[in-house]
């Protein structure tokens, strides 16, 4: 029995090498925008609260439904 399918194997391995847990590395590597080069994503502050909420939902951040925009940004940066 192997691990679940990983959309971006290269990113997964890089995250594991940085010390991320298997679960967290898999969650990040399986997001829709996994593998996109840095610098192209808009700043969190430039996104709407709804966009931030959607990303928090993809990352399964707990408590996201009660967070305001600033709290969502903090949670996303620290996830």
UniProtKB/TrEMBL annotation:
SUPFAM superfamilies documented for this protein: Rho N-terminal domain-like
Region (Disordered): 17-49
Domain Rho termination factor-like N-terminal, first and last residues per copy: 50-76
Gene3D superfamilies to which the protein is assigned, alphabetical: 1.10.720.10
Domain of life: Bacteria
Compositionally biased residues, Basic and acidic residues: 17-26
Pfam families, per the entry: DUF7218, Rho_N
InterPro entries xrefs: DUF7218, Rho-like_N, Rho_N_sf
Protein name: Rho termination factor N-terminal domain-containing protein
UniProt source species: Sungkyunkwania multivorans
